[in-house]
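To: structure subgroup
Subject: Chain for Friday's discussion

All,

I'm putting the inputs and outputs inline so they're searchable in the archive.
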Amino acid sequence: LSDLIYTGNIGSDTTLYIRGYYAPNNGGTFDFNIGTKNFNVEVIRPWLEGIATNISGRMSGKLNLFGTPSQPVITGRLRFSRTGLKIDYTKVDYTFADYIVLEKNAILFDDFTINDYKGNRLYITGALRHNHFQDFRMDLNLDFKNLNVLRTNSMDNSSFYGMINTTGNLKLKGLLDKMYLTAGIATTEGT
């Protein structure tokens, strides 16, 4: 039983609550209800170090976390608002304000929309499937038009730099270390 309360200049609000139990004598079983309301997404920064920077935004939703430490299950829905990040390697800023659904052993995307700095959109549909957060498998379809995917200069990487904008479709299937890609992609004006 825990609450994280934010107090600002216009009042207080509970940004995170956790209710439930953990039974270490019963195989380590647990069952928690977790709620977020405008919770700062910057808490994920340590897990994205070396991948993304400029992480900002809020998330709200309700989750149920249950099972055992070796077989955790998370179900629920998270909505992101005014969320953004910069991909370190490509130096491209992206923003999004959409939701994901978590089911037992899957994270679902239904036209999840990501915007580049010019407002061009990437739509993601499909699922990241897993076995209790092990052995992740992708089954994702990405559609995009004039999307900026590279925005580097010679100071970032003297061998490979420039601006790349693309239009197309990309299908990602399989395990992360044995992924199959099907792509129909073309560069667009400004590349």
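Points worth raising on Friday:
The chain has no helices and twelve strands.
The chain has a mean pLDDT of 91.

D.
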